[in-house]
Amino acid sequence: MKAKHDPLECLLKVAPTQVLRRLIKTLVSRQPDPLASWRDRLSRRQIRRECVEFLKRHVTLDATQHGEVETDALFALWDELEPDLKELDTYGGGPEETETRVADLLDEVVQQLHAKRVPEAARRKLLDAVLIYIKRGNAGMDDPLAEVADATCYTETDWRYLAQRLEQLGKGWETLQDAMRIYRKLGDQDKYLALRLRRLQSGGDYHDLAIFYWQIGAKDKALQVAQDGLKKAEGRTDELRAFLAKRAKAPSTSIRQAG
Hints:
Blueprint: H1 7-14, H2 17-30, H3 40-58, H4 63-91, H5 96-114, H6 120-136, H7 142-151, H8 156-169, H9 173-186, H10 189-196, H11 203-215, H12 219-232, H13 238-248
């Protein structure tokens, strides 16, 4: 992602001389041998990212400059990891070293997003890029990628946008479950139920619905769903039995055990 102005150049222009001296000393101490066996492109990306991260901690910026710097730093990370992520996706995995490196960098992306300083436009652009790999689901990075997608959401509008995109992916039930989780988090009962009732198959499906009904105060309906699950669910009924057993102990609850 290219910014109109180079945030690193902006930081270098406004940085006091003393800060620039400290940056040079830091880089020298971290890279004592510039001819080490790194790939040149990777070395440049890492050094650039280190410079941006260091300077943004020590230089005062206005709101516009700050947003540009955060965007540049975020996409420097993404540009650094995506070639390896693409390779993992192409071949359905790869060497453990590569998988660890990609997972670690994705975690750094999450931590940077958690600082809540990345502008919305940049977060949406990153989310669109991440969803491509979530849809393919071939890189073995489903959980780290899902964490990045979640981390792009700062507001209720962001969460709703993510849920809608997950619905549109057409990947299958897994992404619809993620969308359900978000709608439930937002308190959008109609959207949650519309997706939840599409499939009640495993005991976990019935248990999720029973918990939902119980939490909104529809306790009779919750108990009925749990009892139906004991009769109809394909496996994973332990949670349902525990759900019913726990509520059977309440004095005000009368449960006719099923199954």
